[in-house]
Design brief:
The protein is mainly beta. The protein has one helix at 3-9; strands at residues 17-21, 27-28, 46-50, 54-63, 76-83, 88-93, 106-116, 123-131. The chain is built from one helix and eight strands.
Length: 132
């Protein structure tokens, strides 16, 4: 399999893959090997868990004075999103005007370009959120 094809077909590349403890049912993202609740009882019981990508805005802020890498995005929104299953993720909210954002708004994860390293460098992708 060619290297680019490997990355395109890697299940964790374009999905939110966390871990679920088979001992207590806790779900974690980013993935971890030991459950913070069960500790030793969770060894070998942490299984891959695909988050649905759907959630609700738990909290948010509008950034008016961005860092240099975000200078073209003024203002932009950062939010804490409570995903289905209870995991909370932090990410940028796109495709939404700040005045239309509210706590409890239904959102979904979307994969977008985060940046690149030079003109011929590696393109970095990651998750952001958009209203559903």
């Amino acid at each position: 399999m060619s290297n680019p094809r490997y990355w395109r077909e890697n299940p964790s590349r374009y999905n939110l893959i966390g871990k679920k403890c088979e001992n207590c049912g806790g779900i974690y993202f980013p993935p971890r090997e030991i459950c913070p609740k069960c500790r030793r009882k969770s060894l070998g019981k942490m299984k891959d868990y695909r988050l649905s990508g759907k959630g609700k805005i738990y909290s948010f802020t509008v950034v008016h004075d961005p860092m240099p890498d975000f200078a073209l995005m003024k203002p932009y929104i950062m939010a804490m999103v409570e995903m289905d299953g209870g995991v909370r993720l932090t990410g940028q909210v796109v495709d939404c005007e700040p005045e239309k954002l509210k706590i409890g708004l239904d959102v979904e994860a979307t994969f977008r370009k985060l940046g690149s390293e030079g003109n011929a460098g590696i393109i970095r992708y990651g998750y952001k959120f958009r209203p559903r």
